[in-house]
Amino acid sequence: MMSSFCLMLAAVLLAQISRACDSDNEEQLLTTQDPEVSYAQAYGYTPDTWNALDNQPASAGSPVDDYSNLYEGRTRNKQQHVVKTLQSAENGVQSEGRLALGGLGANLINAGFFNNRFTPANTWRPFATLANRIPVSFNPNFDNMFDMFETCVSPNGDAGICAPGSVCSLFGGRPTGSCSFGKVCCINTINKCGGVVTLNNTYWQNPSTPIDAPSSCSLTVRTDTKLAEQSKKPICQIRLDFISFTIAQPTAGNCVDTFKIGEATTVAPTICGDNSGQHMYLDVPSSAITPSNVQFMFTFAAETASRSWNIKIAMLPCGASYLAPVDCLQYFTAVNGKVRSFNWLDVTSTTTRQLNNQDYNICFRTELISGLKATQMCLSVCPVRNGDAFSITTPTTTPAAVAAAAVVAAQNTLTASLAIQAVAQAAFLAAGAGATAAQVQAVNDANIAVRNDQAALASAQATSVAANANAATLSGIGTSAIINAVNTATCLYDFLLIGGARDANDVGADRYCGNALNPALIPVAINTQICTPVRPFRITYHTDGTEAAVAAGTNVLPAPADTANTGFCLNYEEK
């Protein structure tokens, strides 16, 4: 046994020495990609396209200023660049000492060559400390078998992590494809309730068995640098990608099925409905300082509904250039694209799809356009086939308010007529056969009055419906407007905030609502493109907790009831 071990160890030493004598070309092949770049490419990002220190535009005649600021301060700035340079220099020193005596453990022993001969239940590890006692050099790119930020993409497009096959199996992963140094591209999937996630790029899918209702299904994401698989770098953010997401639709804007997030620094809204293709960024305390247990929970109501999901969970390291800015639930990192509210879908709907109690920021990284920093971001409604691309609160107008007041008046008149009719009929019935002609006439007059008042009410209601339908197509801006001599809320309770936005005619507004995106002072039913020069680019979406009418009160402005709001879908482009 001992002689076999010695032969094996000698073979390993000879292999290490022979690799040290290889050409520079082989040395370059053994160099792994920057984990941050690898991660960003796995996501389809163009990492740091506007970072002047790492990617200066080819057309620039002189160095471009560092674009980091208080808002985009999570991107690499000059100090971070210096640190990275120093780290690279240190790694170079380590690489040059490959024939010096170092630690074999991270290369073979700790990677499973010896220790994986023993089952996880067996705590006896005869070779656990051998690496620290054998002076053998190692390739620095092999120094962490749990390098969770060396991401990979499987042949079918799923994101995973590069890990030894034995480690992938230990965590229940699915090996698909290969990585460098004999590692596999490990795809980790959980399709149960009540699990705990500690690996980057994990997919949480709905259970294969039917979901009972009412019930709940939860998952915990644990961040802690004491975990071997997270020892590479501390975690500061979690990104959720809703690859697929379908649960019950809301009732009057209130979720009956719910998806909630707890124990994150970011206060995420409760969502439901259809959210495939959406994403969220969640801030968490640095896992090197404060471990976190972030909770994801579905709650299902008793009603029948189609429920399924596939959520990709990515753990983002502190200091990474691709972190979202603080307080940005969503973060877009392309020159152009599409942004939409949760549960917005291009479908015909007569019910409310807009979710209540939404309050979050949507942020956009400032990109380089032709070598120069973008100076504005323009927004326009998405083209739709069946749905409504912009429907945030139901606006009202003076004609609609007058018609609504006429309905109230007609209802009051009818109520009074019904009361008179009831009295006349009671007197007539009490008199019986001895009823007088006057009593008979009173009943007839009361019946005629009721019929007339019913017709008047129907007419007022029809007028109100038409006026409201016309008003519902119009744009809305600001917080309030004088409607029928009453100060009435406009974009006060539900709104999209786009600071400094203006149209092509230089007409501007900050708050937008209604059924058309337009800053016009007089509401119109025409959507138009608006652009904002305010950087960093950001919009804020807010809805209150009800779709019902808001009655006037002390420090409370009245507002009409909302009808079938859908939320928004906007195309954005930086220029």
TrEMBL record:
Pfam families associated with the record: CUB_animal
Keywords: Signal
Signal sequence bounds: 1-20
UniProt keyword Signal, yes or no: yes
Record-annotated CUB domain positions: 325-574
TM spans (from-to): none
PANTHER family assigned: CUB DOMAIN-CONTAINING PROTEIN, INTRAFLAGELLAR TRANSPORT PROTEIN 122 FAMILY PROTEIN-RELATED
Name listed for the protein in its UniProt record: CUB domain-containing protein
Species this chain originates from: Daphnia magna
